[in-house]
Amino acid sequence: MSTREDKVNLVDCFSGSLGKDLLSVERPIIDGMISDVFGFNAVQIGSPEYDFLAHSRIPNKFLMSESSLSHICGLSHQNPIKSNSIDLVVLPHGLEFSINPHSVVREIERILVPGGSLVLSGFNPMSFWGARYLLNKYIVKRNGVPAELLSLWRVKDWLKLLSIEIEAGRWGFYRPAIQSDKWRERFLFLESAGDRWWPILGSIYMLKGVKKVRGMRLSIDRWSSYGSVRPAVRSTNKETAKLIDFREVDE
After folding, report:
1. What's 3-250's CATH class?
2. Distance separating alpha carbons of residues 244 and 142, to the nearest angstrom
3. CB 95 within 8 A of CB 155
């Protein structure tokens, strides 16, 4: 991912007891969204420490990030994957910490096959978690990692412009984003109450979108050559990921 995103990942929003609680809410929702997506190739962009594709039924699963431990080493806003080659992209909190979140969405639209699915998660600025980031904004800027929390409606507008149609959405994590395990447990009742009475105040949102192409026709010739995404990726390490000629990769 981007330099800024990589720095933020050193903090890791899923670390600590608070992050584990967040992950325990977010992962089951994402698992449910990807369980009925079929195809050949699935890619998780970012968060290399956590496997969000574990419950996917797609046979070829890949992780893309700047980490040398990833299957594909590249930038989320300039990724080296061939166009129209991916059936499922999972993007856990990959927009708010990117230097160019709109380009991240454009790249995902480019690599998705017609009818391919995108599942993403993000922090809601109008929530307890958003307030937490607002209070820590000065500290974050001092560390050179300014985060921009994107509203659900802004992200949905970007997806709509790129012909990615929203198929499902969920809110989650209504408890205050505090470090104390004891106090978070006391506010546990807000999870069920929030889902029913004030869902738009959830700290996180998850979206599932499908790439729509007008006038799309499926050709039987396509399936004979449609296999793993591995031949479509040339990047093998962090240094070369930034120097890829993307036009040549597409060829």
Report:
1. alpha beta
2. 32
3. yes
